[in-house]
Amino acid sequence: MAHSPVPNEDLGKSGGTARLKIFRGDAEGGEEVDYEIPLVEGMVILDAVLGIQAEQAPDLAVRWNCKAAHCGSCSAEINGKPALLCKSRVDEYDGDIHVGPMRAFPVIKDLVSDVSWNYEVSKGITPFQSDEQAPFTMYEEDVERLYEPKKCIECFMCQDVCHVLRTHHKHAEFAGPRFFVRNQWLEMHPMDNQDRLHDLKEDNGLGYCNITKCCTEVCPVGIKITDNSIIPLKERVADEYYDPAKWLMRKIRGR
Ligand code: SF4
Ligand code: SF4
Ligand code: FES
After folding, report:
1. For the chain, what is the domain count?
2. pTM value > 0.85
């Protein structure tokens, strides 16, 4: 992958070194390897990793694209927590900095994990459908409500931190916070005519979420995943499935 590592003439300008312990390995296993790199003012972890790749470890695998916290490609783990490598400054960390791949997904090599499971989940979500033709006329408050979920950059860090996936490996039964955000956008779109509540309850495992808010804490674009996506969806599912009158209607409808 083409990249622009820390320019050699800048190396050491700020004095001192950054010490990184980077996971080197693949799906079979691996270990942390120590690297040291001259510290440059404003350096982010991705700069350090690319500098190491350029000067010391040309076979070090790392995924990145925009280097501007927009594409979501460089998500990995720093000191065991999901982070965008291009948004995390080296000087925010004391001592050795542990850098590894996201652990909720299979490791491909070094810092790169296989996030393709997420795209399979995405395919299973009922897409937007409308009885009307765009452009739509909508109330301003409805439009504003749709901005936040659309900010998602698909870094999948919320998926990585969620214990339902990371610890309990419920990938077959749980869509994860990123896709609750997507469902929220669809369900709250006033022009959409589909109903995804059954799928959220039965296929997407919304009930597994116990509102720990860990996903919200790591979202790099500030989506309030629990408050604005998950809780409203849970309320809609509860209204639909646990309201006695609606329960009776569903029995009559057969679903
Ligand atoms: S709030 Fe729910 S979806 Fe988010 S990390 Fe916690 S359990 Fe997972
Ligand atoms: S909701 Fe936030 S943390 Fe989750 S994938 Fe989107 S941008 Fe990343
Ligand atoms: S390289 Fe695009 S978000 Fe970090």
Report:
1. 2
2. yes
Ligand 3 atom closest to 155 (CA): 3
* 139-193 confidence digits (pLDDT tens): 999 999 999 999 999 999 999 999 999 999 999 999 999 999 999 999 999 999 9
pLDDT at 14: 57
Whose CA is closest to atom 2 on ligand 2? 219
Last residue of a domain, which of 68, 87, 113?
A: 113
**Could you tell me if 120 and 233 lie in one domain?**
yes
- For residue 154, what are the contacts with CB-CB under 8 A and spacing of at least 6? 72, 118, 178
Instruction: Give the closest residue (by CA) to ligand 2 atom 3.
Output: 219
Hey, which of 121, 164, 179, 223 would you mutate to test ligand 1's pocket, going by the most ligand atoms within 8 Å of its Cβ? 164
Among candidate residues 224, 230, 227, 160, the one with its CA nearest the CA of residue 200: 230
Residue 44 lies in a domain: yes
